[in-house]
Amino acid sequence: MVTNITFHNPAVLARQALTVDHVSSGRLELGIGAGGAPSDHDMTGIPHWDPPERAVRLREFTEIVDQMLRNEVTTYRGRHYRVEDADMRPDPAQKPRPPLTVAAWGPKTLRIAAEYADSWNFAPAKPDLTPQQALEETMRLNQMLDEYCVESGRDPAFITRSLLVYPRMADAPFDSDDAFQDFVGRYREAGIDEFILYWWREDAIEYGYECEVVERCADRATLEHLAGEVIPALRR
Length: 236
Fold this sequence. Notes:
There is one protein chain. Helix content is 48%, strand content 15%. It is an alpha/beta fold. It folds into two domains: 95 residues, no CATH class; 133 residues, Alpha-Beta Barrel (TIM Barrel), CATH 3.20.20. It has a six-stranded parallel β-sheet, with helices on one face. Strands 3-4 form a two-stranded antiparallel sheet. The radius of gyration is 19 Å and the shape is globular.
């Protein structure tokens, strides 16, 4: 969903984003997330970061990317990342920079999203949450983001609310048109603007879903029906 900071240098990522923004004629939306999977560190030999360090790294990383995509030259000295006279010419195709999505799950990262993001992405995919609890958690964090935006002097309305949808977030969101529309409607009322669907079998198995749920969520015909008929109707 987003670029994992574990694997990247922020200045290099900013330059890569600049290139993609140009070759795509200004269609790039850049996502950044703190990561956190132990296997990411084990397989790459990167030291494990505890949650406080990871949050600090995400802030510094986001600040560098934001500044470099806005400015011709950037110097930044943080605790974990430094850049000296980083050159960013030509300017991005999109002004003032490509839109930035920040994935955030807790207070520290939500503050980063409130200060820098054009879009906040979230997935309440804790295995112990019921569908109703997942909805309530989304509402709670959405309200928290609003409060942090006000504290930082930003209008909350300027940040898109983006939801990464897992099957367990609803009793049966993909079983019928009405169920899907009801799911989207309830999350729209909770403040969500954009829905990104996890769908394929591999994702379901990785997160331990029951076999029958795996089969239902891997039904390509249902996906094509939703994409071709139900979602366009919702957009209208």
